[in-house]
Design a protein that fits this description.
The chain is mainly alpha-helical and 262 residues long. The chain has eleven helices and no strands.
Length: 262
C-alpha cells in the first residue's frame, strides 16, 4: 500500500466503523425494544454529552481527574526511571528484590485503595498515589529492560575510546533506553487514567469516576454512557500527547520511522 494511502486510512476507516457501530446500536435498541434504563439510544447519549459539556461543574470534575492522572503519571515516571536504571544496572539488587516486586505487581491494585483512603483521606492525594501505583511498573520494567538492552560490545567500544561514565550514558545508554521509556509511558498513561478513575469510583467525592457513581445511583444510563465517552476522550488525548512526545524526542527510532517510510 502506498504511503499516502496508509496515512489517510485511519481517517477514513475510523468514521466508517463509528457509523456502523451507531447504526447497529440504534437498530438493536429499536428492533428489540430494549429499555432505556439498560441501553439508551445513541441520540439520548448524544444529548447527555451536550448537556454535560454545557454544565460548568462537569469541567470541574474533568480538571480534577486530569490533575490526578497527570500528577500520578509524572510521579510514576520519576520513580520508574530511577528504579529502572538502578535495577537495570545492579542485577544482584534486582535478583534480591525480585520476589517482593513480583508479589507487589501481581496483587490487584484495587485492593490498595482502602489503605490509601485510610492513610491519605478521600481527597485527591489517594487517587494520585493510586494512579502512580498502577503506572509505575510498566515504566520501571521497560526502563530496566532498556538499560540491559545495551550490547556489551558497544560498552566495550566506548570504554576503549576512553569515554567517561557520563559520556557513555549520554551517547550510548540514553539513546538505547529512550524507546523503552516511551513504550512504558504509552502503557502507563492508560493505567494512570484507570487508577485515578477507580480511586474516585471507590472513595471519592469529585472527578469523572465520582460522576459514574452518581449516574449509576440515579439509574441515568445516558449520562453514564456520556461520562464513559468523556473518559475515553480524556484517555485518547493523554495517549496522543505521550505518542506525540515520542515522535518529537526519538524521531530516529524505527517505531516512528515505520509510519513515514513507504
Amino acid at each position: 500500500m502506498e504511503r499516502e494511502e496508509r496515512n489517510w486510512l485511519p481517517w477514513v476507516s475510523t468514521p466508517i466503523v463509528l457509523l456502523l457501530v451507531l447504526a447497529v446500536w440504534t437498530l438493536a435498541v429499536t428492533a428489540f425494544g430494549v429499555s432505556e434504563f439498560i441501553l439508551p439510544t445513541p441520540a439520548d447519549v448524544g444529548e447527555a454529552v451536550l448537556r454535560m459539556l454545557a454544565d460548568a461543574s462537569t469541567w470541574g470534575h474533568v480538571v480534577i481527574t486530569l490533575t490526578e492522572v497527570a500528577l500520578g503519571f509524572l510521579a510514576a515516571l520519576a520513580f520508574g526511571l530511577v528504579a529502572g536504571v538502578v535495577l537495570g544496572r545492579a542485577e544482584w539488587l534486582e535478583r534480591a528484590l525480585r520476589p517482593v516486586l513480583v508479589a507487589v505487581q501481581v496483587v490487584p491494585k484495587v485492593a490498595f485503595i482502602p489503605l490509601f483512603v485510610i492513610w491519605f483521606g478521600f481527597g485527591v492525594t489517594s487517587k494520585i498515589i493510586m494512579a502512580a501505583t498502577l503506572a509505575f511498573f510498566p515504566i520501571m520494567l521497560n526502563v530496566m529492560l532498556g538499560v540491559r538492552s545495551v550490547e556489551r560490545g558497544h560498552r566495550d567500544v566506548m570504554l576503549g575510546l576512553g569515554a567517561r561514565r557520563w559520556a557513555t550514558f549520554r551517547d550510548l545508554e540514553l539513546p538505547s533506553t529512550l524507546p523503552y521509556v516511551f513504550a512504558g509511558m504509552e502503557v502507563a498513561i492508560v493505567f494512570a487514567v484507570i487508577g485515578a478513575v477507580v480511586g474516585e469510583f471507590l472513595g471519592g467525592s469529585e472527578g469523572l469516576g465520582y460522576l459514574v457513581v452518581v449516574s449509576l445511583n440515579a439509574l441515568d444510563a445516558p449520562q453514564l454512557f456520556a461520562v464513559i465517552l468523556l473518559l475515553a476522550a480524556l484517555g485518547c488525548l493523554l495517549y496522543l500527547i505521550v505518542n506525540g512526545a515520542k515522535r518529537f524526542v526519538i524521531p530516529w527510532h524505527e517505531s516512528v520511522l515505520a509510519r513515514d517510510t513507504p
